[in-house]
Structure prediction request, 499 residues.
Amino acid sequence: MTATLPLPTKRDEAWRYADLKALEPIWPKLDGPEKVTVADGESASRQITVLPMIDGVGIVDLDITIGDNATFAIHVLVSAADYGRIQVKATLGKGAHFELGGAILGSGTQTLEIVTETIHAQPNATSNQVVRSVLAGKATGSFLGRINVVRDAQKTDAAQSVKAMLLDRTATANAKPELEIFADDVKCAHGATVGELDKQALFYMAARGLPPELAQKLMLQAFIADAFVSMDDDEQRAIIEEKALAVLEKLS
Amino acid sequence: MLKIENLHANVGDTEILKGLSLELNAGEIHAIMGPNGAGKSTLSYALGGRPNYEITSGSVDFDGQDLLELDPHERAAAGIFLGFQYPVEIPGVSNLQFLRESLNSQRKSRSEEPLSGAEFIKLAKEKAGLLKMDMDMLKRAVNVGFSGGEKKRNEMVQMGIIDPKLAILDETDSGLDIDALRVVGSGINAIMRKPDKAVLLITHYQRLLDLVKPDFVHVLAGGRIVKTGGPELALQLEEEGYEAVAA
Prediction:
């Protein structure tokens, strides 16, 4: 994404579900991806939140190179007022690990997305991506996750788990895993579901005395917790979960 | 305490309860027995206010309140506990969190002070002990990975913690082995056999009634109570079957 490049179109797979109208005015101001390098054997992490009260349009673009036996973990909360996009390209060295946990929380006409490209360029590397979306109103939440395993990247272990919860039938969830595998001794697991709150569970909770709004809150809180469970730092996890909870409370 | 008069209820387009009347007083334990499809579970769900269980006519009075006017969570706060035939799993929500939130929601609606974390844990430990349930299970997600018997035992721990006025227990004995049945039976007695409480036990088998002695036994067939008697009626049913007794 640089000022010299033309605005992407919907024909461009990585921008298929994007809100291009919201993107247009800020497109020339975007600098292109922020480059992050994690040196061999090191570990680094980052937490990013794109929140409606701060960001009308919030776009984060990262190009991460993870050295041999290095680890990079990123946890994101996407809920920009109009359009929020987290785009991450991760290139993994030998025995490296890439972890992504993301929550997409949207209502109204918000368009929110997480787009990842994970390149297993060397053998023995692992990656794990967990995305949980809660969508109400006419919001659109999308996850596009491409995984490339190059010819020599044997013993790659890559996993993607994508789940979306629709609070209204008018909301939209897109989940698109895309695997390109050229090595023959690899494990790539991916799962995607789109569902609604379990009505039986809601009645069960009501029968124990929980008002509907509290029952729903408990269930959604548990649902999105999956996205942050891999955070090592308890304090950071508490901060991002609290922010997520604040957004959730405004959704329903 | 509970007075059901001429209750008619539909599930979808099908009428299941067809003029059911029943009265429970404080201090009483009533058993409802009946063939499959008679409407036993429908009765418990209708009393609990489950969505899609539509009351088409009749009335239910609970301690002077029109029960049918209340939402499910308000019925719970009013003092009704529904023991589920198939307790529901809630991934990611721990039993302790679930029960503390539930109990405190009930207390709040009755203008009572919420229990603190420490007070709640003490209460939960006591009730889990009564039902011989490991506290570790209460830290796990609600019913997730529990066996059928553990789920039923968990229902009774929940009942102990919530301490309702009226318990409606839908086949709480199904899925329990003999030892677990004994534990659950003595749990029901310890928690609910009190002068200010009442129990409606829905069951297929005499065995639970040996442990929790009912004051009244009703036969539910075709959406109505067709026969009422004392504990001897359950024995007669066990011997002769529904068809002979209810005919």
